[in-house]
Structures are given as C-alpha cells and as structure tokens.
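Hi everyone, sorry if this is the wrong subforum. Our group has a chain we'd like a structural model of before ordering constructs, and none of us has done structure prediction before. Sequence below.
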Amino acid sequence: MPLPDRYCVMGNPIAHSRSPRIHTLFAQLTDQALVYEAELVALDGFDAALRQLVQTGTRGMNVTVPFKLDAARLADSCSDRVRRAGAANTLVVGADGRVHADNTDGLGLVADIVRNAGVALAGQRVLLLGAGGAAAGALAPLIAQAPALLVVCNRTHAKAQDLVAQHADLVEGSTTQLLALEAGALEGHFDVVINATASSLQGAAIPVAGHVLRPGALAYDMMYGPAAQPFLQWAAQHGAQGRDGLGMLVEQAAEAFALWRGVRPPSQPVLAQLRSELDAH
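Answer:
Right subforum, don't worry. Here is the predicted structure as tokens:
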C-alpha cells in the first residue's frame, strides 16, 4: 500500500494548534488517507523549513503566526486573495514541487458567520477591528458578501487606509461603502463587529467604545478559548451576541482541505466535537 500523503501546520509557537486534530477528523469523515502534523519552525527559519518539507514530499501546509507574510512571499504562485492581503495561510505543493499560496481565513470567517451563526452580512453595517494579517485575509471575502458599509478601524490609521486602498477596486460600482476610520470617528451602530486585533492576547483594552454595537449585534472575535473572553465579555456587557473564532478555525481548515484533496469535509460535526473538547477544559 502507498504511504498516506503528508500535510502539516507551520508556526511558532505551535504546540497549542488544533489543526492536526481538525484535519485528522476531516480525513476520517471523508475516507482520505493522510497524515497531518504540527511543525515548530525557528523564527528565522521558515524559508529553510519550507524547502525541506517540499523536498521530503509534503503535499500541503497550513501556516500560522508569525509566518503568513513569509508564506505569501516565498510561494511560486498565489491567489488573488493572497495578492491583496500579502498573507497566506495555506500552501499547496504541486507534483512539480511548485508551491501555490492561498488564504482561506476570510472564507472561513464568512462561512462561520453566515452559515454557522446564521447572520447575514449582505446589506449590513460591518466594523473590522485591526489591519494586520488576520484583517487583511478577511477583507476581500467580507466585501464579496455585499455589506452596505464596511469600516476598517486600526490603532495605526495609516495601516487601515493602506488596506482599504488595496481593496478599493472591489467595491467600485457596487452598493458597498468601504472606509478606513479612526476609533474616535466611528458614528452610529454596527450590525457586526469583528475583532481581528491581538488585543485579547496582549491583555489590552477593547479598541473601540461599546456604543458602536447595535443591541443584539454580532460581536465576533477571531480568537477562541481564553484569549477571546475579554472581547466576548465586553460584547455581553453592551447587549451584543458574542461569538469566538473556533468556527472560523474549523471552516478555514475545511477550505484548505478542499484545496488539497478536492473534497469538502463536513465542518459541523468537527466544530461540535472541538467545542465539546474546549468546554471540557
């Protein structure tokens, strides 16, 4: 029998990653023969690690913090999402050893909000907090949902302006208004507020005032577990519906799995399994 195809997630730190668990469950549910492992990569060693993995026959990689920009830069080809975001979280290795970069983060975010949480984005007022790799990967898929207003708000305003400029052509001739605004300039309520900042990890304050939340709004943190709790508590205090990023993690993985294997795994049972494991701790 041929050996199963090998995949991995590259990051630093990586021991906490739930990606091996997710992809193993996906493989079982779709009868795919594959092995998926976590690879700890030296902070200055992504280039060498990627070359080594390609040479030893690894068929695909997920890429997490802090290497998403490196993954986009080093790939032989990339999707439009990667070109705009400057960040990649999924690498597909061709039979010729060429590496194609894609970004499934935003697709996973949208799938979790629209499909799993049942919250429509079309025609809504959406606020995206942050302008780093996580926010950059999310912007094009959010625009594709045709919100009425999509505002990017970041502590360094120039970074938000740059991100909006990189995506401005996507809203030309559409009904979506795309803006970069400073926190003090935010007016009115938003239907969906997405936290793509690292404020939760750094124990920093929520970067915007509670008045931005419409009562009953969806307040979504891309983090999950303890890191998401400060944002979710803030949301609850202001009458919003909080949701963490566990579903985004599962859905972006499902998109990556589909790119690698040509089959889209069922995400619901895997999300339910991970949620029960997370709640048990």
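For your construct planning: The CA atoms of residues 6 and 58 lie 5 Å apart. The chain has a mean pLDDT of 95.
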